[in-house]
Amino acid sequence: MANPILRQKLASRQFITAPGIQDMIAAVIANKVGFDIVYGSGYWTVASAYGLPDAGIASVTQMVDRMATLVRTCNAAVVADADTGFGGLLNVHHTVQAYEQAGITAIQIEDQEFPKKCGHTPGKRVVPAEEMADKIRVAVEARRDENFLIIARTDARQSEGLEGVLHRMKLYAEAGADILFPEALTSDEEARIVTSSLDKPMMANMADGGLTPIRDAKTLQSLGYSMAIFPAMTSLAAAAAMESALLNLKQTGTSLSPDVPLFNFKEFCSLIGFEDVWAFDKKWAR
């Protein structure tokens, strides 16, 4: 079942900040910090699980399996990247039902040609707007739970300009999308123009290193957004920390350094569930 919290927060106009979660270590740390909504990023999930670029290489089966594991591990509701729906209209239908059965709360579908590209890298091409609108109609019809929300993303900014974004957002809203996602806008002014164009919740992508300026939650809300994802933050932070630790080990021959903070091992054992294992072993010891 989809978690109703996302629909409830949107209805009450509470701004939503969702960190990207690339693997289950990030998931248990997010549990500790206390987020109620997280984002299952396609880019970073595929990079973490398979060491591959976000270029439509991972299959729907691989992505659903990964997202289902994320749902099982997270205390939070999961908003999941589903690329282009992994094909045509029939693929979209089955993708929606597979993600819903996995316990996802919202699914993001984009209007790129398949295979897609990361929204903040070169070479993106979009499908005709009506083709994407049909995908949204199919997605809306395929879902069984009203709390399972459909997010329509457009990558048209770089090929069709802001007018293309506005045209597509209007079509996708009319097709039944619950949330609109104008990807890779390049300024606050563009954000204001797009968010004021339709009375629909809109999502911002705060992709560190990408085309959109990074803004804080208060600023994004003032720009007219209802929610923001920060898909790259945990992955880039983890990569930087690992590089630092590995360089220290290579140079000094030890893991110990005041410049390389390490998470407490005993606490991590608890976060990952070893206390339940120890309790089980104690109960059944002979």
Automatic annotation (TrEMBL):
The Gene Ontology terms for molecular function here are:
oxo-acid-lyase activity
Quote the InterPro entries the UniProt record gives. Answer: ICL/PEPM, Pyrv/PenolPyrv_kinase-like_dom, Pyrv_kinase-like_dom_sf
Q: Name one Pfam family in it.
A: PEP_mutase
**Source organism, top-level taxon:** Bacteria
Q: Specify the protein name.
A: Carboxyvinyl-carboxyphosphonate phosphorylmutase
Source species of the chain = Niveispirillum cyanobacteriorum
